Structure formats: C-alpha cells, structure tokens
Amino acid sequence: MDRFQAMQVFTHVADANSFTLAADNLGLPRSTVTTTIQSLEKSLRVRLLNRTTRRVSLTPDGASYYERCRQILADLEDAESLFLDGNRIPRGRLRIDVPPSIGRLILVPALCEFHTLYPDIELALGMSDRPVDLVQEAVDCVIRVGELEDSSLVAKRIGTFEGVTCAAPAYLEKYGEPHSIGSLADHRAVHYFSGRTGRIVDWSFMMDGRATDVAIKGVMSVNDAEAYVTCGLKGFGLIQPGHYMVAQHLESGALREVLTHLKPPSMPISVVYLHSKHLSPKVRVFVDWISELFKRCPLLAGCSEAHPNDEECKFAGKHKTQTALHEMLRQEEVESVF
User: Fold this and answer.
1) The last residue of a domain, from among 36, 62, 81
2) Strand duo 210-214 + 203-207: pairing
3) H or E element: which one contains 35?
4) Within 10 Å of residue 9's Cβ, how many Cβ atoms?
5) Fewer CB within 10 Å, N- or C-terminus of the chain?
6) Burial code of 153-166, b = ≥16 C-beta within 10 A, e = fewer?
7) CATH of the domain at 273
8) pTM of this prediction?
C-alpha cells in the first residue's frame, strides 16, 4: 500500500463524509477506496472512521490522524513545488485563521476576488478568538492584532488597529457625555472578556504619549465582537471597539464618538506565518493579496512611525499581568480579541 496515496484517500473520505463521494472525487472505484481505508486501519491498528448506513465520521484517533495527514500532504505539495516552474499557478489547500470581526467585515466580502485570481487554491477559513498553534493545527497563516516581538514566527505588518470610544445617543441622553478620564467614574461600559482566560479587558487611552489603563464599571460583559457592538447600539453603555467595526454606525448616527481628544492606543495588524526558507506559493500570494486589500481599506491601512507597514519581522508576546487590550495581545499564545 502506498502510504501517501492512502493518506490522500483517507482525507478525501473524511472531507466528504462518504466513501462514494470520495471515490467519485478521486476517480477511483468505491471498492478501491474501501479497501484502502481498511488496509490503512489494519496497518495503524486503530479505527479511523465510524461507518453507519447514512454517513461516515472520524473517530478521535481518526481526527488526530486527519490533521497530521493534512499537514504531511501540504508539506509534500510545497516541497514538490520548489522544483517545478516558478511561474506555475499556486494551488492546494490554504488554511488561514482571522479575528471574527476582520473576517466578517473585511476578508469574507473580498474572497471572491482572491478566488478569481487563484481558482486552484482551496480556502479553509477559520474565525475564532482563541490562540491558534500553526504547527499543531496545520494552519498556514493567521491575521492577528498586537505588538510584534522576537519569535520563530514571521509577520508582515499589513495595517493598523485604531480604536474609538463611542456610545448610542440614547445612552448619552440619559447619562450625559464624558469629557475627561475623571468623568468616566460616572459612566458605565460594556466590557469585553477573554474567551480563554475569562479576564475583563480594561480600557486604555493615550495620554502624554503613553498608554494609560482605565478601569470603568460595567453592567454587562461579552466575549463576541458582534455582540459587543450590538450592546453599544442598544444603549447598554460606552464601548471601545475598532473603528472599522463601527464606521457605518458612526456615519449613520446610531453611535456617537466621545472623548475625541483621547484616543485608545493603536496596534499593528499582521499576517503571521511559519518561518521557512522557501515560502509556499499559495501562502506567498495570499500574503501579497491581503496586504494589498488592507491598503485599499482606509480604516485599516493607517500606519505610524511606531507601526510602519510593509515590514517583515518576528512575532510573539510575553505574558503580562495587565489586562488592557494592548497588553493582553502580548501574551505568548496570541489571542485575537476582535
């Protein structure tokens, strides 16, 4: 039994949840697919798939083996591509992970453009707030918000996260508008908490060139960016989201910016991938495309001397005790809050 062919057959069956569909996709007889899986399970001495009359599903061992097979097959494809024509069309499965708000508002609406340019790349898009292990989870690249420091991962800065403090007109009519840090003591906020640690994200403002963390009492906490903005729209309290998340609401008047003279610290947005001497063509074209996409988005393309774009560097964070957003994003396993 050819081990690589067996892995390909196995991953196709797992993706299709069907022996018949996998056989059709591979152009093989169903009996060949069935025999291949049986031989693979016998060789590994584990059951990889649960079979019923209606569907096929992965066992726990099968799920673990599936992830490793995906990574091995992707590595094999990348290795072969190094010796083929450098101008060949990028192809293969590209697994990426992005913050939910960036995925919904920026990336997904533009993915048809990427697919038109690179129709042979199969996209697998994950949108979550949890940290992602690129190696263990076979993820090709991620988009993350946070400071860039030394590590074994490579990051290309593609934009800037600019926060804004705002509230619904109904809230401001009831509680008034804050005009200083001190006046925030008379207000309430909608809080965002880390889905991984459960910690509340404190607010932060730039004062005298330094980020100053401010604790504000709150009446509600959420760990979803869309719910966070919705709470602000409904008048639950002040919110401090990314500007791109609420731009349409600020323009329509559904939200009003407050404390305009005090801005939250800006943070770089980066596309992050594993260090490799030979970056695979599919990752390279995605990095170039997403960089261009962010340049075309005024709310995300802003940069400063502190966070210049078009810079490739190392990426990681060190655990901090503070819980403000700009500090939380420095954790060793980077968690994308928004």
Assistant:
1) 81
2) antiparallel
3) helix 30-44
4) 25
5) N
6) bbbbbbbbbbbbbb
7) 3.40.190.10
8) 0.66
